[in-house]
Amino acid sequence: MIANVLDRADVAVVGAGTVGVSAAFFLADMGLDVVVVEREHIAWGASGRNAGFLWMHTRNPGLPVDLARAGIEIIETLSPDLGPIEFRRRGGMVFFETDAQRRVMEEFAASRANDGVEISVLDQQQARELSPLLPRNAIGATFCPEDGQINSPKFVGALAHLAVRKGVRIHEHTAVLSLLRDGDGLHGVHTWSGLVLADRVIWATGAWSGELEREGVAAPVRPSRIGVLVTAPVQEKLNVLMFGPGGAKQYAIVRDQPSFREEDFTGPWEDGENGFEYNELVAQREDGRIQIGNPEDDHGGFDQRTPMYGMKMMVDSFLDRWPHLAHIAIDGQWSGLIPVTPDALPIVDAFSEIPGLFLSAGHIYGNVAGPSSGRLIAQLANGETPFMDIEGLSLTRPGLAYGFDRAPVPVDEGEGAFVRW
Ligand SMILES: Cc1cc2nc3c(=O)[nH]c(=O)nc-3n(C[C@H](O)[C@H](O)[C@H](O)COP(=O)(O)OP(=O)(O)OC[C@H]3O[C@@H](n4cnc5c(N)ncnc54)[C@H](O)[C@@H]3O)c2cc1C
User: Which of 95, 327, 339, 370 gives 138 a disulfide partner, CB atoms 3.0 to 4.6 angstroms apart?
Assistant: First the structure.
């Protein structure tokens, strides 16, 4: 049977999340003809389900900070053309409730000076002045003025619109079934709706990127499920982004502090032994709705429904932090899949086994790393020198070789610096 040709282009991008859409935008900006193929619809995956944090506060030094800063810069530069994506930079807080937590967060704040990330420690009054919705038991917070916020589905939609204006064609509800190969040569992809012919293919399918392994190449990315709950609009203002102690402990840069003890940062609602963690965060939409989360577990594989225990953690922690809002209605609830790699860094590289095939996947903090990775993979696919050194994001780096069996993974073998995030 001869398959019909759906489209043809210089480059086919698979996946219309923040990474795929960013790659398509930058490729089109370089003058290339681009087609995006998406199994569901634009921002259907993690990019349409997330909390909107543009988070610098706890980013590890080196590549994570550089990727994040570059990503925020891209969003800032494009924001006049992107329209109402709720982009703002009012900073972010990590609040603490005990002296033990304060000690760790003070150590953390001091350690950040070397990394070039500005963090101050606020007392309770200073924190409440910045954020009237500070939880009732908070005794202070660390504050980073660099942190910002977007509405992520709006951002991806607006960037897709800009890409389309540059000539990109986006085929939604069109799953890629396999690569189109002839011997070692790559000619595009087979989709549900026909062939997309292109001699370069960028694979940007987030948590589903492991599917690429059926083509005989390694794509070490797996899903981790995290949930969100959104309330009806609340009049009081949060103003900033916020993590709680439970959210802080997910970051190696906090856990590495001398005074850190896991039990001091674990909420009574968590059940780590059974694989349920609560990466406590809170953000407020421009319309006043409060978004809380994130219960995290990996029991569900690719199931994007929230487990009962995840719901319990969100409700229990919310009622503990803001008992006066117990009457507030729940406006929505969902989960999504973050794409995790063994060393928690994204992969931005070309496959040596299949010339013309590129991978940009494994983004845990894709709101910031997604736009920068999109630009980097576009540069690679166009034969340009990437705007930053991406050796550490390669498919052959040591951090990937450990696989998922040993977690956390030593990223820098010499130093033994462990990261999970
Ligand atoms: C609840 C939640 C909260 C989060 N909060 C934040 C946050 O505050 N800040 C932050 O930086 N990050 C956050 N993240 C992480 C962030 O959302 C991800 O890092 C980012 O969205 C990853 O983007 P992506 O483009 O790689 O993947 P995705 O957005 O998942 O896009 C992948 C796309 O590929 C498509 N696809 C898969 N297989 C195929 C196929 N065979 N053919 C065609 N298309 C295919 C999927 O349908 C999907 O649309 C959060 C994630 C979740 C789930």
Answer: 95
| Per-residue pLDDT reduced to its tens digit, 339-370 | 999 999 999 999 999 999 999 999 999 999 99
Model pTM score: 0.95
Find tokens 């489209």 and name the residue: 7
Domains of the chain (ranges; CATH) run 5-48+153-221+343-419 (3.50.50.60), 92-145+222-340 (3.30.9.10)
Predicted confidence at residue 419, as pLDDT, reads 39
* pLDDT for the residue numbered 216: 94
Provide the residue count of the chain: 421
Taking the centre of ligand 1 as the mean of its atom positions, its distance from the CA of residue 124, in whole angstroms, is 35
- How many other CB atoms are found less than 10 A from the CB of residue 383? 7
Residues 6+ apart with CB under 8 A from 280: 243, 244, 245, 246, 247, 267, 292, 293, 294, 317
Structure tokens at 352: 């040596």
Q: Which atom of ligand 1 is nearest to the CA of 175?
A: 42
Which of 298, 367, 375 best tests ligand 1's pocket when mutated (most atoms within 8 Å of CB)? Answer: 367
Q: Check whether 409 has a pLDDT greater than 70.
A: no
**Probe residue for ligand 1, chosen from 22, 35, 38 as the CB with the greatest number of ligand atoms within 8 Å:** 38
Binding site membership of 208 for ligand 1 (Cβ less than 6 Å): yes
What number of other Cβ atoms are within 10 A of residue 259's Cβ? 14
* Omega before residue 294 within 30° of 0, cis: yes
